[in-house]
Amino acid sequence: MRPELVALRNHPDVSILIIGGGINGIGLFNELALQGIDVLLVDKSDFSAGTSATMTRIIHGGLRYLENAELRLVHESLRERNRLLKNAPHYVKPLPTTIPIFTWMSGMVAGIRNLLNWPTKPGDRGALLIKTGLTLYDLLAGRKSPMPRHRFRFRKAALAIRPALNPDILCTATYYDSKITYPERLCLELVQDAEAACSQAHALNYVRLQSAKGGVVVLRDEVSGENCEVRPKIVVNATGPWIDGANQAIGRASEFIGGTKGSHIVIDHPELVAATGGDMIYFVNRDGRICLFYVIDGKVLAGSTDIPTDDPDATCDEGEVDYLLQSMKQAFPSIKVDRSHVVFRFCGVRPLPRSNALTPGQISRDHSFPVLPPGNGINFPIYSLVGGKWTTYRALSEQVADAILRVLGRPRVRSSADIPIGGGKGYPRLPQGTGLPQERLLALQERYGAGADRVAAYMKASPDAPLANHAGYSRREIEFMALNERVVHLDDLIMRRTLIGILGELNLPLLKELAAVVSRVLLWPEQKTAAEIERVVQLFRKVHGVILTA
Ligand SMILES: Cc1cc2nc3c(=O)[nH]c(=O)nc-3n(C[C@H](O)[C@H](O)[C@H](O)COP(=O)(O)OP(=O)(O)OC[C@H]3O[C@@H](n4cnc5c(N)ncnc54)[C@H](O)[C@@H]3O)c2cc1C
């Protein structure tokens, strides 16, 4: 059993137990640690291995929510977007976004009906509606917004910049949101910052909520298979789309979630990369649903779908791949994109509140935290974190922390609003005196922000060499992550510490090479290393539509 779990066995009392290490559970963990509260967070898998890793990777105000008249939500999201641009500048970067527009007046009637709280299925959005929306969006971002205001371009000017755009456009509108390059790493940094801020804050990956009785919660160490008991005053259920299942496991049935699955594909297609002109393309599909695509590290990320599901482990199906490919053809009809260009796919389930909305897109993306009081043989209250966006995790965490502090009778001692996160502290700063070439230092800065100092120092301490199968990483850089970043399984490294998985860069030789480097420093026996390789092969085949070959 891991030493942290042995310590827990000896000291099972904890004020707050957070179940679920997605962005919302981790955000709350960080918030409570800043207030000096003893808090334990557990996740059945790796940190941010659930919905939080399957997002479109944009930090945004939610232009589309204006159609549902959710002005407060858009205002809050824009404020949090602006904060993340400031507090996590190493990962959150401005992203110009261009909307191709095909009509002048469409969507006005539906827009007015929605504003009057008379929900109507959205269809095409014309220039006037988009102009109104973007003007409001700029206003809600506030006068101090770090982003430029939106601008329109008529057809000729728009096609001069992006000649491959659908020639049927009348004009385009360009506005600014932001992208997050490493959401999974930002989650890990929030965990590490929280533990550094409070000696009584502990987060453990691969520990599953098993059951509960009276005041005791039973947790299972997914590594050793052993159980461990804790006695919390309050339980926070931050298990996203698994919320109702987790409440059921505690013995307090709930029906909070009405999830929708969303899939993305990653496309290797240099012509398409060039066609975007560096902007995110915000495309309204024939069914009225919005598709987004933009470039991450030389590949195009396209998504997402929005399909009701009861399965929190849903995967991307063939129909969704076709749908996303077809959306791209509508935006850039002259560019041939097909399945042979798809190098990766992934799917996540939005933990949305149960709803009777006409379409999934009309379900509010706002958050709430209903509380189940003690009862049914359970002595502690359960706060369930329902809905929300990655972008607004801090606002949700702050609100839940304040409610918990009131119950504990403890004061708020610090606000997280202006605290830089992880490698955002001191960014931009290039490591000094490493002897590494400038290009390599810039790559490290991109990956770790100001934390590149520590990585570069480790790399320098012993002879190092680029990986034989991926020149972008060196052996000691991978070792650093394995030793310092809570890597339990090989897929933690491939999927969440690096972009190797999502960019479709993994092949069998690289997988074996990574396994050899990791197993040497984590002291994995041969059999365990072979099992880890097989685990990744199966994961890629079953979940990401990739057959790993040489
Ligand atoms: C397709 C898609 C695109 C999106 N795009 C964006 C976007 O671009 N921008 C944005 O702001 N938002 C976006 N979102 C929304 C955002 O990703 C989610 O709102 C957010 O990630 C939810 O986080 P969470 O922490 O609540 O849930 P999760 O990230 O799912 O975390 C729940 C965790 O609980 C753990 N867990 C489950 N059961 C147990 C158990 N029994 N014991 C222990 N642990 C358990 C899971 O392993 C998981 O890690 C998108 C969502 C989807 C699906």
Task: Itemize the secondary structure elements and their pairings.
Elements lengths: L2 H8 L2 E7 L3 H12 L4 E4 L15 E2 L11 H17 L4 E10 L6 H8 L11 H15 L9 E4 H7 L9 E10 L2 H15 L3 E4 L2 E7 L2 E6 L5 E11 L5 H8 L9 E8 L2 H7 L3 E5 L5 E7 L2 E5 L3 E2 L9 H14 L10 E9 L16 E2 L2 E2 L9 E3 L1 E2 L5 H16 L29 H11 L3 H9 L5 E2 L2 E5 H10 L5 H8 L10 H15 L3 H19 L6
The site of flavin-adenine dinucleotide has 40 residues, from helix 2, strand 8 and strand 16.
What brief labels describe this structure?
550 residues, alpha+beta, ten-stranded mixed beta sheet, eight-stranded mixed beta sheet, 36% helix
In short:
With 550 residues, this protein is an alpha+beta fold.
Helix content: 25-40%
Shape summary: globular
Radius of gyration: 23 Å
The bound ligands are: flavin-adenine dinucleotide
| Main beta sheet strand tally, sense and closure | 10 strands, mixed
Specify the number of helices: 17
Mean pLDDT: 95
Structural class of the helices, strands and pairings?
Answer: alpha+beta
Describe what you observe in this structure.
With about 550 residues, the chain is an alpha+beta fold. About 35% of the residues lie in helices and about 20% in strands. The chain contains 17 helices and 22 strands. The chain has helices at about 5-10, 25-35, 70-85, 110-115, 125-140, 155-160, 185-195, 245-250, 270-275, 320-330, 395-410, 440-450, 450-460, 475-485, 490-495, 510-520, 525-545, and strands spanning about 15-20, 40, 60, 90-100, 150-155, 170-180, 200-205, 205-215, 215-220, 225-235, 260-265, 280-285, 290-295, 300-305, 305-310, 340-350, 365-370, 370, 380-385, 385, 465, 470-475. The strands form four sheets. Strands 3, 4, 5, 6, 11, 12, 13, 14, 15 and 16 form a ten-stranded mixed sheet that branches. Helix 13 (about 450-460) packs across helix 14 (about 475-485) and helix 16 (about 510-520) packs across helix 17 (about 525-545). The two termini are about 35 Å apart. The structure holds flavin-adenine dinucleotide (FAD). Flavin-adenine dinucleotide (FAD) binds near residues 44, 56 and 262. Flavin-adenine dinucleotide binds near residues 45, 49, 56, 238 and 241.
